[in-house]
Amino acid sequence: xxxxxxxxxxxxxxxxxxxxxxxxxxxxxxxxxxxxxxxxxxxxxxxxxxxxxxxxxxxxxxxxxxxxxxxxxxxxxxxxxxxxxxxxxxxxxxxxxxxxxxxxxxxxxxxxxxxxxxxxxxxxxxxxxxxxxxxxxxxxxxxxxxxxxxxxxxxxxxxxxxxxxxxxxxxxxxxxxxxxxxxxxxxxxxxxxxxxxxxxxxxxxxxxx
Length: 209
What we know:
Strand content: 25-35%
CATH class: Alpha Beta
Number of strands: 7
Number of helices: 8
Number of domains: 1
Structural class: alpha+beta
CATH superfamily: Gcn5-related N-acetyltransferase (GNAT)
Radius of gyration: 16 Å
Distance between the termini: 21 Å
CATH architecture: 3-Layer(aba) Sandwich
Shape: globular
Largest sheet: 7 strands, mixed
Oligomer: single chain
Order of helices and strands: EHHEEHHHHEHEHEE
């Protein structure tokens, strides 16, 4: 599997991988339109915004097997500044409001701030894996572990090393990260929009090479 930065012509496929991978997850269904068609457009718009921002920051990575993208990752480096409202607006955030409604968009944004609260409270420079998705048709085939071990970890090691943080809301994913050098540091049971959601924060220490 080849690990590299995404190309401009691959953005649409990166959005597809992220949106289809995350749609079934519990956190994606806390703030969403009831109409399934609008929900798909809403999810697509959210991930379109994120993918566009990380592409411009040169931190949108793909795992490629043959001629297809099997994994996609969005990562913040220690030298990155916090994303601004302007960045979100320039990269299509309002599309999500049109497709899903302002209530759902604001609710989703507030929820993500809550989920990432512990990561954002860390003062020391660190890496942050914001999005990590395996294409639904390629899951449970070992691509996720290879993307982490051969791609993400290797990239960080070659760029100074450091602590890598992420959050997940899936118990299965929590087990996956535990098997791949991550250590659970915080678990919370959150109440969001009258729904309970588990929230795990993980850290992996990557040595520089």
